[in-house]
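Tip: read the tokens left to right.
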């Protein structure tokens, strides 16, 4: 629902579809992680309000009759326009992208025939104490009892820890900011360590924590250091085309968390298996050192996505120069620590703007860097992303 709340391109049907709210005929659409939005909905229904009156809750969307929308909203080109004209689709995407800051975003309106979609600004990011409360709930951490056969995916993630949510990278092909936003919301160190302690005593735990991370592992504790904490910022990415001068990279916070996690009773080994943003890592010497020395499970996942400048520029990724700098530092640190460790690069083929020649150049660059690739993801247009708009 988060990615399909507006008229959107659907790859499987190869057409622009209406908002999922209209196609589902639901009364209300909740987008984002939804905790505070759902609580507000429940409390207002409990107090006797009709669901049709819940039109102003952050992180939700509703429909009204065309012409009944409140004043002051941002008007998108209609569903009929964006499904007929590519430039109107692009215009709608740009208008939506400019209103994703929950502190200064406006209500967005989009006509669908005689109905008007009203999408309220995103819910405010959870404070640390609120996020800690969510993760202190008594989750069983086990598959639903209806499942009788082993679930490979659960085996892989059953001892993984989510330390934060949100991503400030703003990559063109990624929809995480359309869902969790670009403001990093981090749990307290105590909350993370308490969860590790709880996992360590489970009978299915063998003393290994498979991942300590989030959408991007080394964004734990990051925040905007601008005077208004980014509340008026309209920038889509804090990292592209360069790292914002107001970005606090939380180097010591991330490093200290990893150090303390490895010392929890019953834990023999901890790893970071979430993707690492290597351009940030170059600004996090303490985190980089701790990660390389103690938390790489043999292979470190990084996502350059491509190494040809024209392609990475469209992707909003750092490019070859910074990747090579990171790779040299990683290999040097691993050698100094006496460890055989390698990088697994995540790559995308067929991204808008990428040619056959670019893929040949990529293969040659990988060979020159001594990197072997297990798999390459072919680009798939995901609703709500800039890359899909370009596609």
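Filled-in amino acids:
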């Amino acid at each position: 629902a988060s990615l399909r709340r507006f008229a959107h391109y659907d790859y499987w049907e190869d057409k622009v579809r209406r908002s999922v709210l209209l196609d589902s005929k639901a009364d209300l659409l909740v987008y984002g992680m939804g905790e505070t939005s759902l609580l507000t909905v429940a409390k207002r229904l409990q107090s006797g309000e009709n669901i049709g009156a819940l039109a102003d809750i952050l992180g939700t969307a509703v429909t009204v009759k065309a012409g009944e929308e409140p004043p002051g909203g941002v008007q998108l080109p209609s569903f009929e326009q964006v499904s007929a004209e590519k430039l109107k689709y692009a215009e709608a995407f740009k208008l939506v992208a400019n209103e994703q800051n929950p502190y200064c975003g406006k209500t967005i309106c989009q006509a669908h025939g005689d109905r008007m979609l009203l999408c309220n600004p995103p819910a405010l990011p959870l404070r640390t104490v609120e996020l800690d409360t969510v993760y202190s709930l008594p989750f069983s951490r086990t598959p639903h009892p209806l499942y009788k056969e082993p679930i490979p995916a659960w085996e892989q993630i059953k001892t993984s820890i989510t330390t934060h949510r949100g991503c400030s990278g703003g990559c063109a092909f990624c929809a995480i900011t359309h869902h969790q936003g670009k403001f990093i919301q981090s749990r307290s160190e105590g909350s993370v360590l308490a969860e590790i302690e709880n996992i360590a005593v489970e009978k299915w735990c063998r003393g290994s924590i498979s991942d300590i991370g989030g959408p991007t592992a080394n964004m734990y504790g990051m925040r905007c250091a601008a005077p208004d904490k980014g509340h008026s910022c309209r920038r889509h990415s804090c990292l592209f085309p360069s790292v914002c001068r107001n970005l606090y990279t939380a180097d010591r916070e991330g490093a200290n968390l990893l150090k303390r996690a490895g010392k929890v009773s019953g834990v023999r080994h901890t790893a970071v298996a979430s993707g690492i943003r290597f351009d940030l890592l170059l600004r996090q010497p303490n985190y980089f050192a701790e990660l390389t020395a103690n938390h790489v499970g043999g292979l470190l996942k990084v996502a350059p996505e491509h190494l040809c400048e024209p392609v990475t520029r469209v992707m909003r990724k750092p490019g070859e120069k910074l990747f090579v700098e990171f790779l040299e530092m990683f290999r040097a640190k691993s050698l100094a620590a006496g460890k055989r460790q390698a990088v697994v690069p995540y790559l995308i083929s067929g991204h808008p703007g990428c040619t056959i020649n670019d893929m040949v150049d990529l293969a040659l660059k990988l060979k020159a860097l001594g990197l072997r690739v297990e798999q390459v993801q072919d680009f798939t247009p995901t609703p709500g992303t800039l890359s899909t708009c370009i596609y």
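The chain is about 35% helix and 15% strand. The chain has a mean pLDDT of 95.
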